[in-house]
Amino acid sequence: MSDFRSLWNGRLKRVVQHGISARTFAAFNTNVDVIVHLDDSVVGQLLADADISLERVRSRSADTMERISNQEDFFTVLRDRLIAGKSFHITVENLELLDWLDKHFQNEKESMGGQAGIIANQMAELGAPAMVYTPVNSSKQARLFHPAVQFPVVTPEGELAIVPAARAGRSDTATKINWILEYGKGLTFHFGDETIVTPRANRIILATRPKEAVMGFPLALRPYLTELAKRMDVAFMAGYHYAGYTLPDGRSFAEYMADSVADLRALRAGNPELRIHLEYVPMQQAELEREMLSRIVREISSFGINENEIRRVLREFGFEEQARNIEQAESAYTLYQGALALVNELGLERIQVHNLGYYVLVLRKPYPLPPDEVRDACLYASCVNALKARDGGYVKGERLPEAAEIPLSDIGFNNLEMLAQDLRLTGKATERFLQEGFLEQEDHILVVVPAHVVPNPVSTVGMGDTISSSSYARELQPLVVNR
Q: Which of 114, 147, 338, 364 is the most buried (most CB within 10 A)?
């Protein structure tokens, strides 16, 4: 069998030569991230200043919690997720808890957060035309946007105008702040007499939800959505997970869903060639999530999710066996089976599951692009993500050749080889799959792409958003060029 690993690493030098010219749009979820890097001394200081029972903390599980209200809740989540090494996102109900954290972390870095904010800034840094809309663009938030990111507004004369997002901030809007608690792989933490060693690098997100954070287009902008759509090639949507039974603006969940679906249809009516991607975030109201996904996902082209989140969604749609298989033996094969179930259930054109060291995609036939273009776009995204993990912040397009010198991960290559065995490929079929990374089936195409793994990343915030957006926007390049 040929040396397929060197073939894959050789592709990196080619894929970074072509950037993104697709006109990108991102909505709705933005916030200010306060990033904290955890170590044992930091956790020790927090424990020393808390009045809690570690025995009760050890008896609880983060998986059963929907929000954080007190210090015991906080340490339950912290301990549980450090042990698991899994990402976690939860809402903080008692803002005094954030004041307590702020007392211990007064000099931490603030940066743009939220799926839409991260995607818009990263697209701008890569040189792609970038536009964003968020309902919580406060003055504090606005200053964190890249100068090239644009923002749609309706003028006093009733016309649509596109202005710099950094100058579109409002002083009368609240700021949504998220605390990001990051930790590295192999770190030791002590909770009393208990010692924990982290199995991988990851983060815990403690989110706030101001009343202005209604994730949708305002009434003033909705009549202009068909016109707005003509200014974009790909739209990245996120924030529907904030919906509850009643929204802060008085609408019911059913009314919000109807409006959201109507808005997505208006965008597609204004630009039939528009591709729409939804980046998954778990809903706080878990019982509403199946309906939300059923309604929203049927209006989009692409869906992004990670290896942990897909188990929850599979269970919500009754795919217990696929969820359990991932839980018991996470691999490219079990993720493929889970992704395929969702593609068929939700009528998706494309799903991308991003995992540590590799990506699994299922494309419904007929797909508008050849699978090698999809694969190469994922390699481009891995290069972006590798530099982000290594250096932090946003990655400039001209720096991408640096990532082409970083080899792809053994984790990814090993999963590719194991997948060939799980698919029962033999001979030339095995060699072709290992070299190309895709396999055409009767009604779909499987694409599996080895990715970079950067040890001890500077930051893990926004990695999934970066992977999904940079791969999909880059994938659409041939369609945009040929229009």
A: 114
Burial class (CB in 10 A: 0-12, 13-18, 19+), 58: middle
How many CA atoms lie within 13 Å of 45's alpha carbon, on the beta-carbon side?
Answer: 10
Bridge partners, residue 444, by sequence: 364
User: What is the DSSP secondary structure assignment for residue 107, as one 8-state letter?
Assistant: T
Say what the pLDDT of residue 121 is: 97
Strand partners, 194: 191
Alpha carbon distance 215, 242 (integer Å):
7
Q: Please answer whether residues 241 and 281 qualify as being in contact, where contact means their C-beta atoms are separated by less than 8 angstroms.
A: yes
Residue identified by tokens 């603006």 is: 249
Domains for the chain: give ranges and CATH numbers: 4-30+114-172+211-481 (3.40.1190.20), 34-111+176-207 (3.30.1110.20)
What values do phi and psi take at 215, rounded to 5? Answer: -85, 85
Provide mean pLDDT across the span 106-125. 90
Write the CA distances from 54 to 60, 96, 199, integer angstroms. 10, 21, 22
Q: Which two tokens stand for residue 149?
A: 């990111």
Q: What is the CA radius of gyration of the chain?
A: 22
Please, which pLDDT band fits residue 339 given cuts at 50, 70 and 90? very high
C-beta contacts of 324-332 below 8 A and 24+ residues apart: 330/355, 331/415, 331/418, 331/419, 331/422, 332/358, 332/360, 332/415, 332/416, 332/418, 332/419, 332/422, 332/448
Helix (H, G, I), strand (E, B) or coil at 34: strand
Model pTM?
0.85
Strand 438-440 to strand 444-450: parallel, antiparallel, or no bridges (unpaired)? antiparallel
CB atoms closer than 10 angstroms to residue 454:
19
- How do residues 427-440 score in pLDDT, each as one tens digit? 999 999 999 999 99
